[in-house]
Amino acid sequence: MKTHIVRARAADEAFPRGEHLAAKIAEVAADPVEVTDEVAEMIVNRIIDNAAVAAASVLRRPVTSARTQATAQPYRPREGRSGGTVFGLSRQTRVSPEWAAWANGVAVRELDFHDTFLAAEYSHPGDNIPPILAVAQHTGRTGAELIRGLATGYEIQIDLVRGICLHEHKIDHVAHLGPSAAAGIGTLLGLDTETIYQAIGQALHTTTATRQSRKGEISSWKAYAPAFAGKMAVEAVDRAMRGEGAPAPIWEGADGVIAWLLGGTEVEYRVPLPAPGEAKRAILDSYTKEHSAEYQSQAPIDLARRMRSRIGDLDRIESIVLHTSHHTHVVIGTGSGDPQKFDPYASRETLDHSVPYIFAVALQDGGWHHERSYAPERAQRPDTVALWRKISTVEDPEWTRRYHSTDPNEKAFGARAVVTLDSGETIVDELAVADAHPLGARPFARAQYVEKFRTLADGVVDPAEQDRFLDAAQRTAELGAGELDRLTFTVAPEVLGRAPEAREGIF
């Protein structure tokens, strides 16, 4: 890997195009380096993972709304351009690729249940799959070409996340997704560096927004924001292919992203990118979720599950303090200052970002469920509310250090729980990584991804359709041109009919 120093530049400073970060990323995207077998295997795992969480969310209102919006757009296939599929609908139902990216992006993101990578910034790199797959389906690409595009999407997003912190400046993390999806589409289509460069600039410019989407009263826009970024990336590549340019230099310009949205003129960022001819392996550093909750809640859920037998009578608890990283404390803990994190009438999205709520429910139930654990009657249970309000977080410098460690064997997103009982006795335990993490007690491999899909698709996707999808997904690398429509699933009309009726909109 080669580390690139990125900083804001004065308007009159000599700064050749080839030195722009967007140009460096475009060079990586255009590099014809082969995808390793290990990376290709993991990409298949994440295609299955995305479909699993989409199956679990396909009947929910935000997903239904996005699906209805997508199918309302006039679209007519033409030679060489067949459209993209939409989760839940027949494979013969095609929509324009940017709208397929939109509908599928919301389905994948709605339950906050797919893969993650945390470093200087945080991310869900699986958000790259819907836009890149939609364009691959639309343009008749092969499975091997799709894998190449996804390797780039994961690489670029994860490398940006390693080097550039957005949340410090209250910018939403999807600002790294627009450029990574545009780069991945560029690889998929075999575009030249100049076209990819322009697409990256446009994608970044149109996907920078504040992180209020994940603060206070969190709404369904939390799921829509990455879908919007994917849709913008598809449109950006389309414009760039037609010869339209982007603001430049988009990151480093005097009025660019770094100068006015991030660290300003005095800050340098270090972004690692693969050197020419170096394989794109970043996906191997990411990890998926066993539980439908913010990633930094994964280890605390497993910790609560482990501690409950030692605690015994939960009514005897006087207080629980979770000692954890700065990021966990201020984003999903009491360091956020958000009263909504203790509101039993809060939205599902808000509860998903409340580790005191999540730890309380996991202690009481001994596990976590993507629907039952968020049900209003579950959140409003008096005994849950009482326990919930006894839980707080504090930052521990050692957990913060481990959170930001570049050593994968040291990097951790867990906590140390100190439970004080009414007798004054304390029970202490800690867990550095979730059980499903590559270094955890039960790391996810292909069998676990398949089981996750079957579990979440149960009662939604017919067993024969489950089998068909899993067979196609596990043969992604062998799928020929025009066969990528197999990488979706159809839900029977009577089941899809259980989804809430979409409200009338403009379309």
TrEMBL record:
Where would one find coiled-coil regions in this protein?
A: none
Disordered: annotated span: 66-87
GO function term, MF aspect, one: aconitate hydratase activity
Q: Identify the InterPro entries for this entry.
A: 2-Methylcitrate_Dehydratase, MmgE/PrpD_sf, MmgE/PrpD_sf_1, MmgE/PrpD_sf_2, MmgE_PrpD, MmgE_PrpD_C, MmgE_PrpD_N
Lyase as UniProt keyword = yes
In terms of SUPFAM superfamilies, this protein maps to: 2-methylcitrate dehydratase PrpD
Q: Where is the MmgE/PrpD N-terminal domain?
A: 19-269
Boundaries of every MmgE/PrpD C-terminal domain copy:
291-474
What protein family is recorded?
A: Belongs to the PrpD family.
Protein name (Swiss-Prot/TrEMBL) = 2-methylcitrate dehydratase PrpD
- Origin organism is Nocardia xishanensis
